[in-house]
Amino acid sequence: MVGIAAVRSEDVSGELQRSTARATALGIMAALAGLMFGLDTGVVAGALPFIATDFHASDALQGWIVSSMMAGAAFGSLIAGRVSSQYGRTGAMLMAAILFLLGTLLCALAPSPLVLIVGRVFLGLAVGLAAFAAPLYISEITVESARGSMISFYQLMVTLGIFLAFVSDSLLASGQHWRWMLGIMAVPATLFLGIVLILPHSPRWLMMQGRKDHARRVLNSLRSDEEVAEAELADIQARLNKSSDAGFGLFRSNPNFRRSVYLGMLLQVMQQLTGINALLYYAPRVFQAAHFGVNASIWATTLVGLTNMILTGVAIACVDKWGRRPLLILSCVIAGLALLGVGVLLEVGASSFEAQIALCGFVLLFVAGFAIGEGPLVWTLCSEVQPTRGRDFGIGCSTVTNWGANWLISKTFPMVIVAMGAASTFIMFAAFNGLFVLVTLMMVPETKGVSLETLEANLFAGKKLKDLGR
């Protein structure tokens, strides 16, 4: 499709560039779902020590407070496919925006741990819906040459949200104002609600609903060049005509589709086993284990968030140039070696100032490694490898898997770190990063610059998963 545009006049090329800019702008607005995701993920790390003090929360109760959002997100992901299929990707994001606002208010005003947990379940439902719908929406409105960068931009918004939450926590930590830490999230939640109301429906979703004229109008507004838009519509229609099955029906009847679903689920499990969310949720606790003070631990956690955000920006710059596989392998190697360093330092006792600096350096190196590949690229690949008629179901399965694994790890981490010790826990996570390298080499396709329709055709032709982009 880009080739068609290249041979047209300079005038039309200008139109195509403007249309891509509009698609980019809409993608950025949709990616604010990731900002909300990150804010609600990151804020609990700094608030938790003060919540525990006010509510006299045990380790087990702290685990429930943290993991309740993941449980809600798992359920939100479970229903996200149906909501997205029936009401569109924008409809799912609208529901998420309302739940973000309600959950934030409940958490900030919670008189008891039970109400706080209910509020975090609401936030989890919102995150589950948004994490499903936003990357899917972005992948469906963006041209293939920029698709990797744009879906990764969603992950950048997640990391920005985490960083801003950590900064907010750090500024409010001296006064132990955990209610303000949680309540300030109402401002971006309201902004996100207003933005979702102006997003157009995805052209692919409109085509699945039989609304071809509406899809054409939206795609023309995104591409401007009618020839390019018509070619894209024809590709979408051709893929839709290939099978009358969709969703679970396609999963049950087509073994090739099952392969893409299982790949998406496996990638999400591996992402959680890297140890990133255990670190983000409990970062102050990890630093305290290395003899940092409470306030110093929270500021060190803020540095983690900053590193995560900056290196995700590097991933965005590189993903459509270097490709998915090289970045993912490099990411796993860096993250694994860094966690091994964390484990060794904790084993020997990082009590000296020099050892504390080294520990902080290894943690930041791990976060940097995760941010350049394991973080953004898993969501990118899960959005790319699913076929049109099975996209809602396939991405729904992978997102549910993500949050199920996320919940399990966040719920058990406080107990695991007590039972195994901090050192052994992080060495275990290092080993999982090594395993992720093998999974990437054996199963992950290179999707750089390949259209969604080509990936789908290769999948249904029975090509090996790692060869889908060839």
UniProtKB/TrEMBL annotation:
<feature type="transmembrane region" description="Helical">
    <location>
        <begin position="180"/>
        <end position="199"/>
    </location>
</feature>
<dbReference type="InterPro" id="IPR003663">
    <property type="entry name" value="Sugar/inositol_transpt"/>
</dbReference>
<dbReference type="InterPro" id="IPR050814">
    <property type="entry name" value="Myo-inositol_Transporter"/>
</dbReference>
<feature type="transmembrane region" description="Helical">
    <location>
        <begin position="296"/>
        <end position="319"/>
    </location>
</feature>
<dbReference type="InterPro" id="IPR005828">
    <property type="entry name" value="MFS_sugar_transport-like"/>
</dbReference>
<keyword id="KW-0472">Membrane</keyword>
<dbReference type="InterPro" id="IPR005829">
    <property type="entry name" value="Sugar_transporter_CS"/>
</dbReference>
<feature type="transmembrane region" description="Helical">
    <location>
        <begin position="26"/>
        <end position="51"/>
    </location>
</feature>
<keyword id="KW-0813">Transport</keyword>
<comment type="similarity">
    <text>Belongs to the major facilitator superfamily. Sugar transporter (TC 2.A.1.1) family.</text>
</comment>
<dbReference type="Pfam" id="PF00083">
    <property type="entry name" value="Sugar_tr"/>
</dbReference>
<feature type="transmembrane region" description="Helical">
    <location>
        <begin position="150"/>
        <end position="168"/>
    </location>
</feature>
<keyword id="KW-1133">Transmembrane helix</keyword>
<feature type="transmembrane region" description="Helical">
    <location>
        <begin position="415"/>
        <end position="439"/>
    </location>
</feature>
<protein>
    <submittedName>
        <fullName>Galactose-proton symporter</fullName>
    </submittedName>
</protein>
<feature type="transmembrane region" description="Helical">
    <location>
        <begin position="326"/>
        <end position="350"/>
    </location>
</feature>
<dbReference type="InterPro" id="IPR036259">
    <property type="entry name" value="MFS_trans_sf"/>
</dbReference>
<feature type="transmembrane region" description="Helical">
    <location>
        <begin position="356"/>
        <end position="381"/>
    </location>
</feature>
<keyword id="KW-0812">Transmembrane</keyword>
<dbReference type="InterPro" id="IPR020846">
    <property type="entry name" value="MFS_dom"/>
</dbReference>
<feature type="transmembrane region" description="Helical">
    <location>
        <begin position="92"/>
        <end position="111"/>
    </location>
</feature>
<feature type="domain" description="Major facilitator superfamily (MFS) profile">
    <location>
        <begin position="26"/>
        <end position="448"/>
    </location>
</feature>
<feature type="transmembrane region" description="Helical">
    <location>
        <begin position="63"/>
        <end position="80"/>
    </location>
</feature>
<feature type="transmembrane region" description="Helical">
    <location>
        <begin position="117"/>
        <end position="138"/>
    </location>
</feature>
<feature type="transmembrane region" description="Helical">
    <location>
        <begin position="261"/>
        <end position="284"/>
    </location>
</feature>
